[in-house]
Specification:
Blueprint lengths: L6 H14 L5 H8 L3 H14 L19 H13 L6 H10 L7 H10 L22 E2 L3 E8 L9 E8 L5 E7 L4 H15 L4 E4 L19 H8 L3 E4 L7 H21 L4 H19 L5 E4 L8 H7 L2 E6 L5 E4 L2 E5 L3 H4 L5 E6 L5 E5 L2 E3 L1 E4 L16 H24 L5 H13 L1 H8 L1
Parallel strand pairs: 1-7, 2-5, 5-6
Antiparallel strand pairs: 2-3, 3-4, 8-11, 9-10, 10-14, 11-12, 12-13
């Protein structure tokens, strides 16, 4: 007779056989099987009377007492196959419970659907093939952009970010620039340097960073970021990658730069962002000479920049609308700006003007292309309440806070070195004077 046994039961069989052969004692067998000696004696008695079949579980092969009726299983599967075709186990269970009134668990329905080939488990599904994407045909057709945060100077300077612009068709490094953070202003500066050197490409290819894409659901009604507005003004499209693998060319370039560029800067003795940005054009030329490829189509799709330098200054700005109050003032960044009291400006009361902040920190106020003169009334800066700091100013704010803390620590050190005598020392002086009244009298005379 063939008896199916589990690993646990086979182990018990071998231990009981050793007891019968007098190789081990019942106490040793109980320790091996982690059960009591009384249980060992019961198992040994059954083994001697019925043989190995006595160790097999008596319920094996029997129908469970908690098993649902076969009619219920068939009824549920018929409804799933006829009315709920393509539904997953969770959604199908929801419909069977709420619509048809069945009382079964999700996992029971899942096992029924898998056995009836109505559902394929995720582990048994065929993997979706991700075929490689061919590079674009023309130079300047698609530029991949990304920021790489790394210890680029190997401790010789603080960690920073490298903005990378690489052409998809040729693999050429179009532009590199070190900056403190991956902010909107830094991308504006790098994009302007790019278009002034190469022209305007057809499109940029980026990730879903908040500089490029509005990710907050509460702000999605704006639909465009400050950097996206700049590209829209220049007639440059931006495409968002769904995964890092989708923009693999710039990701692989980052990995290569984190090896080659770091070592090259070590040999050159570069220890600051300013030195690195001044030297990067030489590295880009060497890199492209070694790694760049020919495009499939020799046509260059970069377009000429038709805007003047002054127009580009106004394009690459942070723009926000501000309403003119009855007192001819607008507020921006904890500062009140007073407009000139002219008849033309009085007609702007209640209307929205555009406040322009340039990457160098200067500001301007504009209405329908006309710049408006202003003066600053900086009363709000006296408030102690902290403002909400945006990403574009985070680096400068942290540097200012660090400088304030260093100055405060130096002031505290100076105060400790020049501090007054302790209270105990003062009491000692008073006590000595009380013990020597003659001295005090002589001094007074």
């Amino acid at each position: 007779m063939l008896v199916s046994m589990s690993d646990k039961e086979l182990k018990r069989l071998s231990v009981l056989q050793e007891i019968c052969d007098q190789r081990i004692t019942q106490s040793q067998a109980a320790q091996l099987l982690h059960i009591s000696e009384r249980q060992i004696r019961r198992l040994l008695q059954k083994y001697k009377a019925q043989g190995p079949a006595a160790l097999a579980h008596a319920a094996r092969g029997q129908i469970s007492n908690s098993r649902l009726p076969e009619e219920l299983r068939l009824k549920c599967l018929n409804i799933v196959s006829d009315q709920l075709h393509g539904f997953g186990p969770t959604l199908a269970h929801e419909k069977l419970t709420t619509v048809h009134g069945f009382d079964i668990s999700v996992e029971t329905l899942r096992s029924w659907m898998i056995a009836a080939d109505l559902w394929i488990p995720r582990a048994k599904r065929l993997k979706r093939p991700y075929q490689p994407r061919y590079n674009r045909d023309c130079y300047g057709e698609l530029i991949q952009i990304d920021g790489s945060h790394h210890d680029w100077f190997e401790g010789r300077a603080a960690k920073c970010c490298l903005l990378v612009f690489i052409d998809d068709a040729t693999g050429k490094l179009q532009h590199l620039r070190f900056c403190e953070s991956e902010s909107a202003f830094d991308y504006m500066i790098s994009t302007r340097l790019y278009v002034e050197q190469h022209g305007k490409p057809l499109a940029f290819y980026s990730d879903k960073h908040s500089v490029f894409r509005v990710n907050q659901s509460s702000k999605k009604d704006t639909k465009i970021t400050q950097f996206g507005r700049v590209l829209s003004t220049l007639n440059i499209d931006i495409i968002f990658a769904n995964s890092p693998q989708a923009k693999g060319r710039v990701e692989r370039a980052n990995r290569t730069l984190q090896d080659r560029l770091i070592k090259e800067m070590r040999l050159e003795g570069i220890c600051s962002i300013e030195q690195a940005n001044a030297w990067l054009p030489c590295f880009i030329e060497q890199f492209n000479r070694k790694f760049a490829n020919m495009a499939f189509n020799p046509k260059d799709l970069h377009r000429t920049v038709t805007e003047t330098a002054e127009e580009l200054d106004d394009v690459f700005t942070w723009r926000e609308p501000r309403r003119v109050t009855n007192s001819l003032t607008i507020t921006y960044d904890k500062c009140v700006y007073l407009l000139e009291n002219t008849e033309e400006n009085k007609r702007l009361i209640g209307k929205y003007l555009e406040f322009l902040e340039y990457p160098d920190g200067t500001v301007a106020i504009e209405h329908q292309g006309r710049k408006i003169n202003y003066s600053i009334f900086d009363k709000l800066s006296q408030l102690n309440q902290r403002e909400v700091v945006e990403n574009k100013r985070l680096g400068a704010v942290l540097n200012h806070i660090q400088q304030q803390h260093e100055e405060l620590e130096q002031q505290n050190k100076r105060n400790r070195s020049q501090k007054m005598p302790s209270r105990r020392a003062q009491k000692t002086v008073i006590k000595e004077r009380n013990l020597n009244p003659v001295l005090d009298l002589e001094v007074s005379v």
